[in-house]
């Protein structure tokens, strides 16, 4: 047998729950089924966390201000989120995934990548695995899931949107490059509005346009993302499904009922946020060295301030002290502040930090 045998084509599935939070609420309350539903607060400063498909027909979507959502859909029903319930259902779904493969990379509570190239069921056809997983999810949770199947993560993610809700789609190695060429770059997963607008200004509006640019050109205009964009324009994405994906940050934020203009009042709002972040660190044995303060103004424009210290933060008060100092650098505020957030990053486990300190002490 030749040493130049063709490499194994990977079989990647992206599973995405359909309107997850809203579907859980409709499952648990039959009176909500078939009605336009938003998970979130109806308060003036509320934000939609999730919208049912009935609400989406009116243009309601996640992250939309609740007042805008109610204006678009006067019959919209708001229900408060129940994150403990969503996490419990998500765990049920993860257990189903684990029946098929240990290579599971969760992206959030409601979606994950699965590498089923070699799977625990010994099934040869990835589309059959995806269909079986979706059936199992429906049986166990009563919820619908959609799936995308392809030979890499980017295309599997794109495929999962093609037949939503409650469907699945395959993008084969044969069809992958042509699929990407015909796709508008603004629909590419990972290309946000700002990048899409920059591409438009450069005359890049489709995958074919992107493919026509050289690697050097893309690196010059998009930095480290250039190589990734060069690859996906050709249907190439060599990222592995990473079951040990590390959490990059821990954060908490709060939207206020009235805009804040005074520094003292704003600092007071940082205390409970620092407490939440530190509480999560303690529960999960995590520490971090970078603190970031997020400020959202009355016109929804955002600003951030970050600081990295030489050692990991050791207590809630230390996080609060640095967050407060960062907030001071943004004062006087350009407008009233409607939201503040505190995030900890440059994370490591408590054990890793302790081991590092011991090595330094020797």
TrEMBL record:
Cofactor(s) annotated in UniProt: Mg(2+)
Subcellular location: Cytoplasm
InterPro entries xrefs: DNA/RNA_pol_sf, DNA_pol_Y-fam_lit_finger_sf, DNA_pol_Y-fam_little_finger, DNA_polymerase-Y, DNApol_IV, IMS_HHH_1, Rev_trsase/Diguanyl_cyclase, UmuC
Site feature (Substrate discrimination) residues: 21
SUPFAM superfamilies tied to this protein: DNA/RNA polymerases (SSF56672), Lesion bypass DNA polymerase (Y-family), little finger domain (SSF100879)
Quaternary structure note: Monomer.
Function: Poorly processive, error-prone DNA polymerase involved in untargeted mutagenesis. Copies undamaged DNA at stalled replication forks, which arise in vivo from mismatched or misaligned primer ends. These misaligned primers can be extended by PolIV. Exhibits no 3'-5' exonuclease (proofreading) activity. May be involved in translesional synthesis, in conjunction with the beta clamp from PolIII.
Keywords recorded for this protein, A-Z: Cytoplasm, DNA damage, DNA repair, DNA replication, DNA-binding, DNA-directed DNA polymerase, Magnesium, Metal-binding, Mutator protein, Nucleotidyltransferase, Transferase
NCBIfam families: PRK02406.1, PRK14133.1
Catalytic activity field: DNA(n) + a 2'-deoxyribonucleoside 5'-triphosphate = DNA(n+1) + diphosphate
Cofactor note: Binds 2 magnesium ions per subunit.
UniProt-annotated binding residues for Mg(2+): 16, 110
Active site: 111
Domain UmuC span(s) in chain numbering: 12-192
EC number: 2.7.7.7
Organism (species): Pararhizobium capsulatum DSM 1112
Name used for this protein in its record: DNA polymerase IV
EC main group: transferase
GO molecular function: DNA-directed DNA polymerase activity
Family that this chain belongs to: Belongs to the DNA polymerase type-Y family.
């Amino acid at each position: 047998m030749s040493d130049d045998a063709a490499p194994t084509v990977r079989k990647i599935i992206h599973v995405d729950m359909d309107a997850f939070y809203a579907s859980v609420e409709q499952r648990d309350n039959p009176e909500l089924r078939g009605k336009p539903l938003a998970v979130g607060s109806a308060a003036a400063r509320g934000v939609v966390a999730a919208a049912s498909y009935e609400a989406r027909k009116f243009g309601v979507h996640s992250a939309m201000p609740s007042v805008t959502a109610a204006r678009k859909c006067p019959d919209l029903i708001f229900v408060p989120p129940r994150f403990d319930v969503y996490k419990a259902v998500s765990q049920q779904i993860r257990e189903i995934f684990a029946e098929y493969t240990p290579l599971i990379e969760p992206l959030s509570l409601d979606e994950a990548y699965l590498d089923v190239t070699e799977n625990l069921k010994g099934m040869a056809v990835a589309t059959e695995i995806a269909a079986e997983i979706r059936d199992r999810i429906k049986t166990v949770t009563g919820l619908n899931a959609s799936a995308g199947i392809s030979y890499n993560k980017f295309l599997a993610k794109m495929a999962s949107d093609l037949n939503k809700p409650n469907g699945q789609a395959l993008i084969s190695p044969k069809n992958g490059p042509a699929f990407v060429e015909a796709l508008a770059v603004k629909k590419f997963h990972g290309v946000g509005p700002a990048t899409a607008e920059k591409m438009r200004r450069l005359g890049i509006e489709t995958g074919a346009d992107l493919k026509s640019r050289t690697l050097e050109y893309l690196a010059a205009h998009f930095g480290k993302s250039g190589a990734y964009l060069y690859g996906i324009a050709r249907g190439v994405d060599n990222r592995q499904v990473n079951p040990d994906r590390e959490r990059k940050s821990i954060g908490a934020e709060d939207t206020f009922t009235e805009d804040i203009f005074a520094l003292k009042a704003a600092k007071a709002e940082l205390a409970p946020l620092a407490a939440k972040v530190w509480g999560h660190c303690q529960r999960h044995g995590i520490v971090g060295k970078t603190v970031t303060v997020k400020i959202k103004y009355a016109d929804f424009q955002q600003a951030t301030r970050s600081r990295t210290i030489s050692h990991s933060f050791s207590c809630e008060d230390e996080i609060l002290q640095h967050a407060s100092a960062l907030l001071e650098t943004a004062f006087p505020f350009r407008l009233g502040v409607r939201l503040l957030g505190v995030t900890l990053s440059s994370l490591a486990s408590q054990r890793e930090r302790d081991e590092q300190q011991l090595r330094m002490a020797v």
